[in-house]
UniProtKB/TrEMBL annotation:
Substrate binds at N9, W10, K11, G169, S209, G230, G231. Pfam families: TIM. Its EC number is 5.3.1.1. PROSITE patterns: TIM_1 (PS00171), TIM_2 (PS51440). This is Triosephosphate isomerase. Keywords: Cytoplasm, Gluconeogenesis, Glycolysis, Isomerase. GO terms for molecular function: triose-phosphate isomerase activity. It comes from Pukyongiella litopenaei.
């Protein structure tokens, strides 16, 4: 049975004062019955990991370099993330693919580096509105999975986040049927490539305008094992109800 995961991506938001939200979240959720992850900006990782110690909250990065070390000004390696206390890293988010031109091949190398450093890689995939309107959604997701996911993964080292680009930060959410179709497709792709055991063990997150008001219905969709939440993860008062909705949701076989 896959353990559910509520992951918050703070993106480029938050200075030291934001740690109060992390502490408030830890207090509010207690021991929630699902995994909870906060991915703050790199500048806050070390302090966030310290603030989360002894709580149910794990800490993750938002990107890493594919190399272990070297002349890469401004970049952070997977081992450096792990050294701060991070256990996960988000990779291939559509904002990084768009802002930094990250390719599937680069995301794959980053995921390999993350796993080698002992981190769980959360690999993001998702179609643009033009791709959906053209009927290309599954082809795009299939190509991203094939290109971005390394060959050696397990349910412990890989999480996939399906984030339709057009749903991120827009308040627009796919229909439950659309979410179910893509999650079912991702599950089938993973099972085809990695076999039944690994395919069934990898957790699949939905991301894109998840809020307390819509979390429950999204978590009821088959093969949705949790969420990758942006805006609504910044405040404990918004994220805690999403964690509670996930913990209360039925486990998917
Ligand atoms: O990583 C998180 C996603 O990009 C979703 O962001 P959002 O919840 O603000 O739409």
């Amino acid at each position: 049975m896959r353990r559910k995961l509520a992951a918050g991506n703070w993106k480029m938001n938050g200075t030291g004062a934001a740690l109060a939200e992390l502490e408030a979240l830890a207090q509010t959720i207690g021991t929630p019955g699902c995994d909870v992850l906060i991915c703050p900006p790199a500048t806050l990782l070390h302090r966030a990991a310290r603030a989360a110690q002894g709580s149910a909250i794990a800490i993750g990065g938002q990107d890493c370099h594919a190399a272990a070390s070297g002349a890469h000004t401004g970049d952070v390696s997977a081992a450096m993330l792990a050294d701060t206390g991070a256990s996960h890293v988000i990779l291939g988010h559509s904002e990084r693919r768009a802002d930094h031109g990250e390719t599937d091949a680069q995301v794959r190398l980053k995921a390999q580096a993350a796993i080698a450093a002992g981190l769980t890689a959360i690999v993001c995939v998702g179609e643009t509105l033009a791709q959906r309107d053209a009927g290309d959604t599954l082809a795009v997701i299939g190509a991203q999975l094939a290109g971005s996911v390394p060959d050696a993964v397990t349910g412990a080292t890989l999480v996939i986040a399906y984030e339709p680009v057009w749903a991120i930060g827009t308040g627009k959410v796919p229909t439950l049927a659309q979410i179910g179709e893509v999650h079912g497709f991702i599950r089938a792709q993973l099972t085809d490539r990695f076999g039944m055991q690994t395919g069934a063990a990898v957790r699949l997150l939905y991301g894109g305008s998840v809020k307390p008001a819509n979390a429950g219905e999204i978590f009821a969709v088959g093969d949705v094992d949790g969420a990758l939440v942006g805006g609504a993860s910044l405040k404990a008062a918004d994220f805690a109800p999403i964690v509670a909705a996930l913990a209360a949701s039925r486990a998917h076989p």
